[in-house]
Amino acid sequence: MPGVTKHVRFDERNTMYSPAPPTPSPTYSNTSLPSSSGPSTPPQQLYSPLPTGPVVIHPLLAFQPLIPPILYDVSFPPNSVQPNVHSSPTHLSSQVLAEPATSPPLQSLTLLNQSLPWELTIRPTSSVTPFVTVQDVLHGVYRFLRLSVNSAEYSMLPSKDHQMRVNLAYHARCNRSPSKDIYDEESKKGVKRVDFLMGQNKLMGLSSTKRGPDVWVLNVS
C-alpha cells in the first residue's frame, strides 16, 4: 500500500510454542499447535509403533524439484491448491485429499524446513481417519505458518540480512491485501512464520530425512 510507513510488528501474546529440545526426538515433537478451525485438540489416538519398512509419501505431496504435482502458495488457504497440468492427477477430489499422506499410514508427521526454527507436527483432524491425510498436511502447514512471531522468535534470525528479507516478505504479504481495511488488519497482526520463508512460498513437496519414517523436509521455492 503506497504512502504507508513500513514498520515491523510482533505478537507478544504468542506463548504456545515450546522450542525443540537440543537433541532431536527419534519420533515427533509433542508441541501443540493452535488451529483456526476444528477441535482445539486432535482426537486421542492409540499408540502405534513406527513401521520398520519403507514409508512412501503420497504422490501429491512428493518432492518434485522440477514439476511439483500441485500448485500451492503456502501463504494462501489450502482451498487455493490447484493440480499441476504438467503432472497428475488433473483433478483434486475430496476423496484424493482424504487419502493417507503416507503408505503405510502414520498417526503423525513432523515437518522441518531450514528457514524455520520450529518443527511442525501434523496429526489427524478426524476420528474417522485415524491417520494423517493429504488434507491434514495442507491445512496443517497453512495454520502453522499463519502463527504470529514474537520479538524473541524474530531475534532467532541468524543475521541482519535474514531480518531484512523477512521484513520484505512481511510487507509484500500485507501489500497484496485487496483493501486498506484488510491491509490494516493484516499488518497489525505482525510478522508471521510464513514470512520466515522469505518469499519462498511455493510448495515443492516433502522429502525424507534420516531422523525416521515420520520426519520429512518441507521443501519450498
Residue-averaged pLDDT:
82
Distance between the termini: 25 Å
Order of helices and strands: EEEHEEEHHHHEE
Q: Which sequence of strands runs across the widest sheet?
A: 6-5-8-7
Q: How large is the share of residues in beta strands?
A: 5-15%
* Main beta sheet strand tally, sense and closure: 4 strands, mixed
Kindly state the percentage of residues in helix. Answer: 10-25%
Could you give the count of β-strands? 8
What count of structural domains? 2
Low-confidence stretches: 11-41
What is the molecular shape? globular
Number of helices: 5
Which terms would index this structure?
221 residues, 12% strand, alpha+beta, four-stranded mixed beta sheet, single chain
Descriptive account of the structure:
- With 221 residues, this protein is an alpha+beta fold.
- It folds into two domains: 56-150 and 199-220, no CATH class; 152-195, no CATH class.
- It has five helices and eight strands.
- It has helices at 94-97, 134-145, 151-154, 160-175, 180-188; strands at residues 56-57, 70-71, 82-83, 102-103, 109-112, 120-122, 203-208, 215-220.
- Strands 6-5-8-7 form a four-stranded mixed beta sheet, with helices on one face. It has a two-stranded antiparallel sheet with strand order 1-4. The chain has a two-stranded antiparallel ribbon with strand order 2-3.
- β7 and β8 form a beta hairpin.
- The radius of gyration is 18 Å and the shape is globular.
- This is DUF6699 domain-containing protein.
- InterPro entries: DUF6699.
- Residues 70-211 form the DUF6699 domain.
- Residues 1-47 are annotated as: Disordered.
- Residues 26-39 have a biased composition (Low complexity).
